Every structure is written in C-alpha cells, then in structure tokens.
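Hello forum,

I keep getting stuck at the same step: I have a sequence, I want structure tokens, and every attempt I make locally crashes halfway through. Rather than fight my setup again tonight, could one of you with a working pipeline run this one for me? It's a single chain of 123 residues.
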Amino acid sequence: MYGAMRNSVLALSLVACDSAADCVIPPCAQPIAITVSVTSSASAAGIEGAFVRATGYSTALPCSQTPGTTCSILGDAGNYELDIGAPGFQTVHRTVQVLGTTPRCGCPNIETQHLAVALVPLT
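Reply #2:
Ran it on my machine without issues. Output:
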C-alpha cells in the first residue's frame, strides 16, 4: 500500500473561480479596518479605560494598554462612525473611510486606517 501512495499526487486549491457556482472562498481572518491610538491632551500619556464605539458593533470596544493605548476595529472596507472616549475625558466623534476590495473569490484586501486621538480631560 505504501508503494501505491508514494506515487500519488495531492492537489489542493483554496480558490476556484471558473464560475459563480464553483467559487470557493477560503477561511479568512477578519481584517483590522482601523487602529486608534488614544492619549490625553494634557499629558500625552495613554489613557486607562479608553474605548471606541463603532458602526456595526452593539457594545463599546475596549482598548489595550500595552503598548500605549490602542483600539482595533475589525471589519471590511466601508465608512465607519466612531465615538472615542474614556472615563474623565470628553468623547470625540470621527468618521473614517476604509478603502479596499472584496474579490468575488478570496479574502478582502483593505487598507487599515490609523488614527491618533488626544482626548481632553473633563473640567
């Protein structure tokens, strides 16, 4: 049996696009559409508890604290409405357009947008 298998060829295809009927889309990781770096306008330091509310998400997305304060929004190309805030700071609104393509077969190819936002402390 080993001798018969030794001469076998295994062919794998992740994408087949001869027609719409046989288009196979490979498993694709959700791309990062937007990253937001959040700092305090008073100290230029990262802010603990920072968050982003984004179009299409039912809850606010928390931001990581290492390194700095960074928020990542997963998604495809399109327009995003963002509210960026933190406890003790004013919330700001930004509109971001993420460009990219989603081929008929295959994974989306987007241009991740990077924002730097300095939040103003509440007085």
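Residues 2-6 form the longest helix (5 residues). If your local run keeps crashing, start a new thread with the error log.
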